[in-house]
Design brief:
single chain, elongated, mainly alpha, 0% strand, 2 helices
Length: 88
């Protein structure tokens, strides 16, 4: 039961930012298509959508990078630096 709850929480931690990014993208799309008519671009809606999209994508990307770094799936330049032994 405890493991199931932990997995559910982990899935929710990824689904919520995914919905945020999707909703942000839809807000930006709607703002751009609303500007096609005689009105101007609704900047408030566009900026809110951009912020939501950026936060969602950054969270998912950071989580994926952290997981891949733990499992050594990243390029050598992204691996943690190891302290070198001092020369004698």
């Amino acid at each position: 039961m405890r493991m199931t709850l932990m997995r559910l929480i982990a899935v929710l931690l990824l689904v919520i930012p995914g919905f945020m990014a999707t909703y942000g993208f839809l807000l930006m799309k709607d703002a751009v298509f609303a500007s096609i008519g005689p009105d101007h671009l609704p900047w408030g809606t566009f900026i809110l959508g951009f912020i939501l999209f950026g936060i969602g994508i950054a969270f998912i990307g950071g989580w994926t990078f952290f997981r891949d770094r733990k499992r050594n799936y990243v390029a050598p330049r992204f691996k943690p630096k190891r302290a070198r032994k001092p020369r004698e």
